[in-house]
Amino acid sequence: MKIFIDTANLDRIREVNSWGILDGVTTNPTLVAKENTNFEALVKEICHIVDGPISAEVMSVKAPDMVAEARKLAKLHHNVVIKVPMTEEGVKATKVLASEDIKVNMTLVFSAAQALLAAKAGARYISPFVGRLDDVGQDGMKLIAEIMNILDNYDMDAEVIVASVRDPIHVVEAARLGAHIATVPYDVLKKMFAHPLTDIGIKRFQDDWAKVPKK
Ligand code: G3P
Question: Fewer beta carbons under 10 A from the terminal one: N or C of the chain?
Answer without folding.
Answer: C
